[in-house]
Amino acid sequence: MRVLKFGGTSVASPENIQRVKDILENNKASRQAVVVSAFGGITDLLLNISEFAANQDESYKKGLEEIESRHIAAIKELIPIQKQSAILSKVKSDLNVLETLLEGSFLIGELTPKLSDKIVSYGELLSAFIISEYLKSQNLDATFKDSRELIVTDKNFGKASVNFSETNQNCSQYFEKSSQSITILPGFVASSLFGDSTTLGRGGSDYSAAIYAAALNAEVLEIWTDVSGMFTANPKLVKQAKSVSHISYEEAMELSHFGAKVLYPPTIQPVLDKGIPIVIKNTFAPQDTGTHISASANGTGKSVRGISHVDKITLISLEGPGMVGIPGISKRFFETLALGGISIVLITQASSEHSICVGISEEDAERAEEALNAAFAYEISIRKLKPVQVEKDLAIVALVGENMKSHQGLSGKMFSTLGKNNVNIRAIAQGASERNISAVIEKTDVKKALNSLHERFFEENIKQLNLFVMGVGNVGSRFLEQIKQQRNYIKKELKLNLRVIAISNSRTMFFDEEGISLKKWPELLSSGAPADTGQFFEKIKELNYRNSVFVDNTASDSIALTYPEYLKNSISVVTCNKIACSSDFDFYKELKSLSKKYNAPFLFETNVGAGLPIIDTLKHLIVSGDKVHKIQAVLSGSLNFVFNNFNDSTTFHDVVKQAQEEGYTEPDPTIDLSGIDVMRKILILARESGHQIDIEDITNDSFLPEESLQSDSNEAFFESLKKYESDFQQLYKEARDADTKLKYVAEFADGKAKIGLSQIPKGHDFYNLEGSDNVVLFFTERYPNQPLIIKGAGAGAEVTASGIFADIIRIGNF
Ligand code: ADP
Ligand code: ASP
Ligand code: MG
């Protein structure tokens, strides 16, 4: 005998029921006991309309109509016309009884647990009947048997306990006598010794199937559902989750107890006692192997087998000086909860005995609070204990695995992963069996926690980085292009999976929670919502993804001001925007300390020298104990380009214009020509060397005439360049006559910085600086006379984008 169970989604539509038929037909077993759930969604609907009726809300009738029409439509679609009428009349008469029951509840304005069970049992009764008739009509040797005549329970309506001796006897008697090869049995429903309909708890059809399997000594119990087995985490929340091929009863029990809904927790006990294996299979992919649950896991030896979670948890704690050393408080605490019928999901007690803390289901929270406050009213009144504390909106995440006990450091790994991702842990518990480690966290962090833990324990090789990209101009668009090109390589070689979740420019913004297709980002972006930096941040915060990185490719002041918010939410910031690091020292410091506090890297390599590894090198010098004495540098690719191309056969105006057109200057060229850009860069280098300086502390010896500096538009600026051409030619001539070249030099020494145009003699490190190159000379304790030199292209969108890319990879390796 094989016992099979088909869940709600497996029988949710006539099309799915046809799949069930195929599976049964292909099963070579001579006898099959087939337990079915109500059509998907019907149980919820029945419970809802019962509530409505009890509240004397007429809208229960609408729900009832939906229930009627779904069942009738299923009959019409599944059963040949000539056989329909008998079946329709039986179903309609059942529906009439259901209507009468609801009407009764509506009239009295009450719903007893007993009546609720009677009403809700119709879901399974109808589905099992219709499915059995359909199989018969397809010439399968099938019959229907009402589980209420076989499974006997107590009268704990809603979640009744099974009387196994009666049940087993009924089952073996019935199946010995019956001869059909397929018996369709409604799951979830049973009856008391007095004949009242009862139910086995939500999700209880799995349990019904296990009861039959045990009673009939079945060779196997197959649970057919909508996923291909028990996964390493809920596949609806963790995309990378994988089906586990083998798992032990205990592990499966632990996973299901902690929320893996694919198996109703009580299911395992009856079959475990008899050593009957459970196989979880997918009705929609019957060829998949699924998960085999048996006494020995025979698994891969992996320590953690799965990660699950329970939603809607409330923590209840009792504490106070009166607890210390007084025996019996815990006993009374647990007794009170037990008497209130409140089941405890998790227990922690600090060894100081100062408090007891339990996690219970949210729906029990109020009752638990009242009962405990009443039970300890005396101790509370004399202040030996504080009133019970209740914390809501929590969830439990749990690591489960049989072999966890023989591996050290798992909890360390678990908690550091959660900490790194800014998931606050409210309480922890580790089962004495060491089969599970659980943590109570905020419910809004569940998805992030599951995904981070999953990545840590099951995808050790691949780390996912979620990128939120602001600004897709010259640099931003090149950056996206580079990701597109390199993504596969990086995944393969560096084990980093880069996903761009959002893109925004100043007009629109576009989000795709699964990752934006980089082949068509421009179209997607222009189809996006109107840009709004506040909403952009809120959405990222709400998504609450692990390893999130905000990438700022703009030059905007207002965006730089938003970095603290990102960092405070453990979202890393990578930026080529120099504003933040060159603004107030306090702001710069704040960003640095937020980055440390929230474990979120703040990287801005491209602030100086575009893609050249200047800041990173400086950082390494400093952390390894070196001290910077002096920095000399040519840091403006734009000015370098201008002075490398300017001579007596060109005009200053034309060369600057060309630099602007070729993208070597900021959109507003005065920022470069006035030296402001260079000031910002040397300021950042000085700060990164450990000095507290501000922009006012830098001497700027500008070569530009006052009129050019003060011009209020690009046109006026270019006009002024024309006007002062002879002055510029004079600068050139003097330099040439002295056999020198003009370079715009920045210097930091003795805590002070200055910038200005210098005549550089032959042989100097700056003399042969081509095109838009930058060069930095670090004179340090370790490099006192011969400086450490970094030189190369220091401007341009392509190299800047590659610098941003490098920062992202640094975060990936963080
Ligand atoms: P059925 O109606 O067939 O009884 P359920 O909805 O009760 O199906 O259970 C299947 C669902 O359990 C899956 O669709 C999935 O969302 C959820 N689930 C939660 N955790 C896990 C897990 N670890 N492995 C597989 N499924 C899980
Ligand atoms: N139909 C019941 C429920 O939805 C039982 C089950 O499907 O397992 O809870
Ligand atoms: Mg289920």
From TrEMBL:
One of its GO terms (molecular function) is homoserine dehydrogenase activity. The keyword Metal-binding applies. Residues 399-477 form the ACT domain. InterPro entries: AceGlu_kinase-like_sf, ACT-like_dom_sf, ACT_Aspartokinase, ACT_dom, AK-HD, Asp/Glu/Uridylate_kinase, Asp/hSer_DH_NAD-bd, Asp_kinase. It holds the Pfam family AA_kinase. It catalyses: L-homoserine + NADP(+) = L-aspartate 4-semialdehyde + NADPH + H(+); L-homoserine + NAD(+) = L-aspartate 4-semialdehyde + NADH + H(+); L-aspartate + ATP = 4-phospho-L-aspartate + ADP. Pathway: Amino-acid biosynthesis; L-methionine biosynthesis via de novo pathway; L-homoserine from L-aspartate: step 1/3; Amino-acid biosynthesis; L-threonine biosynthesis; L-threonine from L-aspartate: step 1/5; Amino-acid biosynthesis; L-threonine biosynthesis; L-threonine from L-aspartate: step 3/5; Amino-acid biosynthesis; L-lysine biosynthesis via DAP pathway; (S)-tetrahydrodipicolinate from L-aspartate: step 1/4. GO terms for biological process: homoserine biosynthetic process; lysine biosynthetic process via diaminopimelate; methionine biosynthetic process; threonine biosynthetic process. Keywords: Amino-acid biosynthesis, ATP-binding, Kinase, Lysine biosynthesis, Metal-binding, Methionine biosynthesis, Multifunctional enzyme, NAD, NADP, Nucleotide-binding, Oxidoreductase, Sodium, Threonine biosynthesis, Transferase. The keyword Hydrolase does not apply. In the C-terminal section; belongs to the homoserine dehydrogenase family. In the N-terminal section; belongs to the aspartokinase family. Bifunctional aspartate kinase and homoserine dehydrogenase that catalyzes the first and the third steps toward the synthesis of lysine, methionine and threonine from aspartate. Homotetramer. This is Bifunctional aspartate kinase/homoserine dehydrogenase I.
